[in-house]
Structures are given as structure tokens and as C-alpha cells.
Amino acid sequence: MFSAENKTLEQIFKALLVFMPISWILFIIGDRGILLFIASLLSIIPTSKLISDMTATIAKNSSSLRGAFINAAFGNVTEVFIAFFALAAGLVEVVKAAIIGSLLANLLLLLGLSLLLGGLKYKEQRFNSNTVGIASTMLIIAFAGFTVPSLFSVFFEEGPTTQISIMVSGVLIVAYLLGVVFTFFTHKHYFEPMRAYSETKTQNWNKGQTIAVLAIATTAAAFQANLLVESLSIAIGTLGLGQIFVGIVIIGVVGNVAEMTTAISAALRNNVNLAINVAIGSTTQVAMFVVPLLVFLSVVLPRSIVPVQLDLVFNLFQIISVLFAVMIVNYLSSDGRCNWLEGVQLVSVYLIIAVAFFFVG
After folding, report:
1. pTM exceeding 0.90
2. Which of 157, 251, 318, 360 could bond to 314 as cystine, CB 3.0-4.6 Å?
3. Could you tell me the CATH superfamily of domain 2-360?
């Protein structure tokens, strides 16, 4: 049954690759509108999945140090490309919205669907509350990193929010890297059951083939992300949607489809422990590594490349939305058990927040 499901998913991902040449044709003929936006958006899904698969394969066949580095470098590379090109286009609000959207999609939608579908198959699923608790604590640290600069800007409007964002970004990256050391080295025995499961899901290609495919997929993801941003402004106007809604709901979800399929597949195999850690781990990587990296890039790169500087100041509604997600996940992860109703609750919260952002802009 699972083999048939996996084959179906693989066929879907392969079918979506057709949108890559379609997007190139649209770009060449000068179409920068809604069609290019849709084609490039759909083509990002299979390239992200391919990067995820190749990263897992290389990490499996490498030392712990190299595996940790590869995971950090390529775990959310698609989000990095989209955010970078959007920054280069001066679309700061879209970038911030996509960041918040990625966090919400992972914590609420991805995890919710995993618990829901896994819970429909198994009456009750159990997970290691110790490892999930460690990951949840990292979430709180990441949330603090976003909240402090945002609250500071509220109480001290003329304060040095840019400098604070830079320093906080440095702290978040160091904390994230130390978390990687904890996971892959000093306390790796906590996470061995998850790795043992995930390693069985990778491709049996040789090293050269895997690196070549990863390089091609990464290059394709960068090109498709650029096409997506090229058509973003026109598409937003054509669809009649606000930049914040597009960033949070559309881009935020599409960038995490690869993680979503991995987590749901794990939950359907009664490995909800992996599903939860995929959701929280991806969220933590975005918040504590990807976003701070983008902050530093926006500072060091010349204004001819990145005309605007990214900071960690988000509006109050975005911060509160993430707070809800972090609180709910921390609560659900406390007892080591989950069921389908908890999945429904997470998805419901995501839909409620998405509806609200639809009217925000």
C-alpha cells in the first residue's frame, strides 16, 4: 500500500517538472504575468523535493560533520532563493510574509495534516517527548529572536532596530549551530531512531550522481525562484490578493511541500516522532539560520544587488500568529501522545489565521 502511495507521489512530482520548460518559454516570449507565476510556482515543488532527497542521500553516506553541514546548507535552500530574489527586487514585505508563512505552514499545516492522516490510520500515536521537547525549546528561542526586535520597535520607534536585528541574528545562528552539534554529536543517540527511519527512504545512487543531481536541482531552484519573483508583482495585481497574503499562504506553503510529504509519509507509517521533528526542525532552521543569514546578506551585499536591508521587525499580528503556533505545538508535545483530532485542531488554527491574513492585505 505504502509502496503504491510513494509511486503515486513520485509520479505527481515528476509530472510537475513539465512546468519548468513551460515557465522558460513564457519568460522568453516576454510573459511576466500570472501564467509565469503559476508555472514557476508549480515547478519549484519538484525541484525542492529533489533537493530534499539528494540532501538526505548525501547526509546518509557522509560523516556526521559533513551530514550536519549539508543539512544546514540545503535544508531550506528554496526559501533562501525566493527570499533573496525578492529582497533584490525590493519586496521586503513579501519576504517577511513568506518567512512567517513558512513558520506557520510547518507548525500548523504540515504537522496538522501529519497528525490527522496518521491518526485516522492509527487510533493513537506515540512519540519521544524528550527529543520533541528539545526541539520545542529551540522554537521558543527562535520566537524570542523575532519578538524582541519587533517589540523594541513598538516601544522605541527611533531605536536602533537594524543593529539589534543584526546582533540577534548572530545569536540565533550560534544557537542553531550548537543545536546541530547537540543533535549530530554530543547527544546523537537521542535521535538515532529517527535517522534509522529516514535513511531507508533515500535513493541508492552513487556519490557522483547524487552530487550532480543536487547541483542541477539547486541551480534550477534558483532560476525558478527568480522567475517567480519576476512575475510576482503582476500576478498579485491580477489575482487581486495582497502581498502579505501571497507571501504567507501561497509562497509559505509551496516552499515546504517537500517537508510536508516526508512528514505525512512518516506519520502514515506510524512514525509520528519523525513527522513532528521534521515540522519543528524545518521551522527552527528557517527561523534560526535562514532568516538570520538573509539579514546578514542584506547588510554585507552592495545596494546595487540588494537595495533594501532586512530586519527582524514584524508587525504585531504576525508575531501573535506565530506565538499561537508555538504555544499550541509546545502544548501538544508535552504528553508524548497524539491523535487525529489534534491534527484537525492544528489545521483549523492555520485556516483561521490564513483567513485573517486574506483581509489584512
Report:
1. no
2. 318
3. NCX, central ion-binding region (1.20.1420.30)
